Amino acid sequence: MRDGVGCLPELADPARYLAKAETLILPFGSNGHPIPGTPDSSGPLRVGVDLGTAYTVLAVLDERGSVIAGEDAFAQVVRDGLVVDYIGAVDLLREIKAHVERRIGRELTHAASGFPPGVPRAEVRATANVVEAAGMRCAELIDEPSAANRVLGLRDGVIVDVGGGTTGIAVVKDGKVVYTADEATGGTHFSLVIAGALGISFEEAEELKKDARQQQRLFPIIRPVMEKVGSIVERRLRGMEVDSITLVGGTTIFPGMADVVQEVTGIPTRTPERPLFVTPLGIALSDTQGL
Fold first, then answer.
1. Which of 103, 57, 53, 60 is nearest to 82 (CA)?
2. Block means of pLDDT (10 residues each) for the chain, length 291 residues?
């Protein structure tokens, strides 16, 4: 059982839970109409909004936490946890919200949201303001690594959430987050390094790094950024008794990331299958406004 979630069988198997999420959280604009097989959405809902540096994700769950629908969109409206394009963020979230509402056949009136640990309180509130300006009440905010553990359910260990712009760290003891930290460096830095090394645009580099056929060639170029992530984690954990690190976030999909972090920190490190939606789903699980 996870706090506020109840005993959902799917959450006992995070890999299966995340696999289902990938079939129901669609890329931006892929289909705004109902699709066959969309789960029932007639009861109370849990809704989460993750305003990331690279991607904005809206996830909709039922009251027990089962995934119903969602959408994700590439957007640079946030930088290092700070909203830098308020109007753009609101407009994009309104559009995503409208797409998902058409899919499930009902209005979304509330959502929880997340923030990297260490972000100033005023900026955390700015995240909630974006959600509310898009038409959803936002009374619940949770730091991103803590949200991730709503899905992972770790009793002890460290969660490292490598987003587009920041690396968030959460130390978990007896199922509770006891320490958090956050520093700049993430997937956007991968793209910047690739763009500089190959003499291409940032947008081209962003697409290239996601191409599985190119990743072996790109690994030596971005390894120094991976090592920087590892050094951030090692420094933040220095002096603590830690026996494992779990990486989440879309950036950690890149092959070799866990190996490099483990090499730098000396701590066994793994990346769960399908780490992209771990944090957005954890944010949605934190939403109790409609229950």
1. 53
2. 49 83 87 62 92 88 92 83 87 95 93 86 87 96 88 93 88 91 90 96 93 95 97 96 92 94 97 88 93 80
Query: Number of structural domains, the chain?
Result: 1
Residue 239, domain member (yes or no) = no
Nearest Cα neighbor of 221 from 247, 258, 260, 183 is 260
The reply to whether 3 falls in a domain is: no
Closest CA to 28 of 111, 93, 110, 105: 93
What pairs with residue 183 in β-bridges? 167
266 touches 255 (CB < 8 A): no
Distance from C-alpha of 76 to C-alpha of 92, rounded to nearest angstrom: 11
Alpha carbons 229 and 235: distance in angstroms, whole number: 10
Pairing of β 67-74 and β 25-27: parallel
Rounded-to-integer distance, Cα 172 and Cα 147, Å: 12
Residue the block writes with tokens 């979230």: 93
* pTM, full prediction: 0.87
How many CB atoms lie under 10 A from the CB of residue 218?
20
Show the DSSP H helices in 153-275 as ranges: 187-198, 202-209, 215-237, 257-265
- Give the residue among 271, 272, 270, 266 at the shortest CA–CA distance from 240: 266
109: three-class secondary structure by DSSP: coil
E-strand spans in 63-98?
67-74, 78-79, 82-83
Which domain range does residue 137 map to?
Answer: 9-144+277-285
